[in-house]
Design goal:
Largest sheet: 7 strands, mixed
Structural class: alpha+beta
Distance between the termini: 23 Å
Strand order of the largest sheet: 1-2-3-4-5-7-6
Order of helices and strands: HEHHEEEHEHEEH
Helix content: 25-40%
Number of strands: 7
Strand content: 25-35%
């Protein structure tokens, strides 16, 4: 099915998520919860929980979806790296793609648009938390690590045996990408997502 998806990639659009997208996002994420250790959630969230999450995230950060032929095929968002104010210029990224659209550039399009918007917000480092087991297994393949490497993320930490799922222990790795280089010693103030110029956001999404 990936070959079919590749034929239609040019028709894909990236747009801001809305609460009405919660059901489709729930369907995508639930697959990973039930069938993989890519996320350490054990039970999928409800649609209402995801609706609330979309609204909450967009109070400060972008939440994007990839859409083709009226169907959501992937999503990505930023969230706070840590709650304390000193971390304001760092975020954590997340990206999930529908199974039949993996490998066709959907994740790259989502991350590209996400990073461009984060740059407008004066976010300087993006951090990704990825499940890890050595050797990789059927529940936690190397796919996410390799994707982030291709996107310019670098390994910066490994925490072994911190999550248990499918009757085995998994660790996590942290990977980081500098969105601005060099990172300024005197950074511009962080700009919450709702305060960005909508025209700049529209331009980024249109060119994704």
């Amino acid at each position: 099915m990936n070959n079919i998806a590749r034929k239609h990639t040019d028709a894909m659009t990236i747009r801001l998520a809305t609460p009405e997208d919660a059901a489709a996002i729930c369907d995508i994420y639930s697959h990973y919860v039930r069938n993989t250790a890519i996320t350490f959630d054990i039970e999928p969230p409800t649609v209402e929980e995801l609706r609330t999450k979309i609204e909450s995230i967009e109070e400060r950060y972008p939440f994007l979806v990839a859409e083709e032929d009226g169907a959501i095929v992937g999503y990505s968002y930023a969230s706070a790296f840590r709650p304390r104010a000193a971390y304001v210029h760092a975020i954590e990224t997340s990206v999930y793609v529908r199974q039949d659209f993996k490998g066709n550039g959907t994740g790259r399009k989502l991350y590209g648009a996400l990073e461009a918007i984060l740059h407008l917000q004066h976010v300087y480092t993006a951090n990704a938390c990825i499940s890890f087991i050595d050797p990789a297994d059927e529940y936690s393949p190397e796919t996410s690590r390799l994707f982030h490497e291709r996107m310019g993320y670098k390994l910066c930490a490994h925490i072994p045996n911190c999550g248990r799922k499918f009757d085995r222990w998994y660790g996590i790795i942290w990977m980081q990408k500098e969105l601005t280089s060099p990172i300024p010693n005197d950074p511009d103030p962080f700009i919450p997502f709702p305060e960005l110029d909508p025209r700049e956001i529209a331009e980024i999404l249109a060119s994704a």
